[in-house]
Design brief:
This protein is mainly alpha-helical. Strands 1-2 form a two-stranded antiparallel ribbon. It has two domains: about 100 residues, no CATH class; about 60 residues, no CATH class. About 15% of the residues are buried. The two termini are about 35 Å apart. The chain is about 70% helix and about 0% strand.
């Protein structure tokens, strides 16, 4: 028997490790940029937000079928029915496509490619609804560790809590409140 719970546990563990590394890096980055590289807080925050945004959107940019269908259909900002018509044009043959012996992938798309783009475009309203969440999230990974670095974080005479680890308390509070 393949897959099952063993595969699910593996996927959960990999996702946990990935998030642990991502959040750890992004929360420690504000301290590194401001203390070691001596950037201003504004410049460091801008750099971190750019890094988080690019790393979040980068997987979508790798969808070559999305970009090549949008180019083929000459998509503009029109209501959804017009967008659907433009996308449907990307899979219709015209005189140039019919007369050529080889299929140009930048001019003619498959039905599957067009339907995939339609599904991705339907996610845009959901992404737009999440903007405020990402604004709050960017505050957590930038200003919260920077503010924590100014606090007295010592426990006993020899142990000091790293400022970025204070983000863990947010997760603990959320788990305890539910």
């Amino acid at each position: 028997m393949k897959g099952g719970w063993h595969a699910a546990i593996f996927i959960i563990c990999v996702e946990f490790a990935q998030q642990f590394a991502f959040v750890g890096l992004s929360s420690n980055l504000i301290t590194y940029l401001t203390n070691e590289l001596e950037e201003s807080i504004i410049e460091a925050t801008k750099n971190i937000n750019t890094w988080v945004s690019v790393s979040s959107i980068f997987p979508l940019l790798l969808l070559s079928s999305l970009t090549h269908i949008l180019v083929a259909s000459k998509l503009s900002l029109y209501p959804p029915s017009f967008i659907s018509c433009f996308l449907n044009k990307a899979m219709m043959m015209d005189e140039n496509d019919a007369s050529s012996n080889s299929r140009n992938p930048w001019r003619l798309c498959t039905v599957t490619q067009v339907e995939q783009v339609k599904l991705i475009l339907r996610l845009i309203p959901i992404w737009l609804c999440c903007i405020m969440f990402f604004v709050v999230q960017s505050q957590l990974v930038t200003f919260f560790p920077k503010q924590g670095s100014t606090m007295d974080r010592s426990i006993g005479p020899k142990f000091q809590i790293p400022p970025a680890s204070l983000l863990g308390f947010i997760g603990i509070v959320m788990l305890c409140e539910t």
